[in-house]
Amino acid sequence: MTKQEFINRVLLIMNEASMADPSGNMFIGADTAQMDRQIEGSFVDGWRRCVKVMPRLWFENKTFKSALLTPDLTQGTGYVELPTDFYLLSSFKMKGWQKPVQEASIVNELVSDIQSNEYTRGSEIRPICVIDLEEIEGEIKNVLRYYSLKKGADSHEVEQAIYVPVAKPLKEIDATEELKLSDQVIEPLAYITASTVFTMHEKSDIAQALDARAVEMFPGLQSMKGKVITNKQ
């Protein structure tokens, strides 16, 4: 589905919801340009809600297999520099691991303590990855630390590295450009986007009804009721 087709779908949902609202059909005949801008501004928040709970293969995926790899051969660990548009890990596997890692937690003191201990850290059988910061050539970069491989190996090699990039705001996408989303994502995302626009206009009853419809389409979605929506990751 293209950007314009998605916007048109959201507008249709909003108009249908308005006609069912006893307070009036506020969006029918409204300024289309203004509605388009509000839909564009609501898209990324809705995308973030969906990507957290839906299968990642339904979203755009990219590879970072050729990213900078810095191994610590003596310890059997190392890290790979993450792309600047990295949002979620889909799959990461070092050559020699028995299975890929499909989730990467943000490093904290507890995780660091466990993974710094050679007896408790991840292994070739049960590998672990964590997202951390590292200074690379004078710049602070996001990296994926991996645990672990056999100590003293001659080299480390990434076998697979796939991630979901953060969604681009709709205003940065051409009207005819494909959104690179599976059909399973489009409809609930359209309802969530419409719900967000109604929330902007203080139409909370309609917004909650649309949000509930999105949840029915994919039960893993969390309700926005009573929550503050931000643009932060």
Describe the model.
The chain has five helices and eight strands; from the N terminus they run H-H-E-E-E-E-E-H-E-E-E-H-H. It has 233 residues and is an alpha+beta fold. The strands form two sheets. Strands 2-3-7-6-5 form a five-stranded mixed sheet, with no helix packed on it. A three-stranded antiparallel sheet has the order 1-8-4, with no helix packed on it. It is elongated, with a radius of gyration of 22 Å. A hairpin with a 2-residue loop joins strand 6 (128-136) and strand 7. Helix 1 (3-19) packs across helix 4 and helix 2 packs across helix 4 (183-200). It has helices at residues 3-19, 32-53, 109-116, 183-200, 204-217, and strands at 62-63, 69-72, 77-81, 86-94, 105-106, 128-136, 139-147, 158-165. It folds into two domains: 3-58 and 181-217, no CATH class; 62-165, no CATH class.
Indicate the topology:
Blueprint: H1 3-19, H2 32-53, E1 62-63, E2 69-72, E3 77-81, E4 86-94, E5 105-106, H3 109-116, E6 128-136, E7 139-147, E8 158-165, H4 183-200, H5 204-217
Parallel strand pairs: 5-6
Antiparallel strand pairs: 1-8, 2-3, 3-7, 4-8, 6-7
Keywords:
single chain, 233 residues, alpha+beta, 2 domains, five-stranded mixed β-sheet, three-stranded antiparallel β-sheet, 34% helix
